[in-house]
Amino acid sequence: MTDDREKRIIDGLRKIREHFESIEDRQELDFTKPIVNFFDYPFRLHDYDGGGRYPIHGALKIDNEWLSCAWSRTGEIFQDSEQHTSDLNIFNVSPMYYYED
């Protein structure tokens, strides 16, 4: 990853994080749009129609290992251990913040 691209991604994610911290009611995720997390970890969706409070199941690749996770319909992670923190929440991202090589 180039330094310029990394800086743009970090700046974009910082703006998104500030935006979500100011919103009380987050909207449900739209799976037709890009989904990211604050640290831009690779995200793999396994299922999004499970039951209960955390119906979205998937994984994030952190330090070359896949961490199995569950999220609410608004992207809040199920925090069952110290590995699962709010920094691993997922959310839709606007194309203006989403950069691909």
What does this structure look like?
The protein is built from 1 helix and 5 strands. It is an alpha+beta fold. The chain has one domain (3-92). It is globular. The relative contact order is 0.22. The model has no long low-confidence stretch (mean pLDDT 80).
Order of strands, main sheet, comes to 2-3-4
| Gross morphology | globular
Number of helices: 1
Low-confidence stretches: none
* Class from helix and strand fractions: alpha+beta
Output mean pLDDT. 80
Residue fraction in strands: 15-25%
Q: How many strand units?
A: 5
The largest β sheet comes out as: 3 strands, antiparallel
The ordered H/E elements are: HEEEEE
Query: Percent helix among the residues?
Result: 10-25%
Radius of gyration: 13 Å
The total domain count is: 1
- The N- to C-terminal Cα distance equals 9 Å
Secondary structure layout plus pairing:
Blueprint: H1 3-21, E1 35-37, E2 43-47, E3 56-62, E4 65-71, E5 90-92
Antiparallel strand pairs: 1-5, 2-3, 3-4
Short summary:
The chain is of the alpha+beta class.
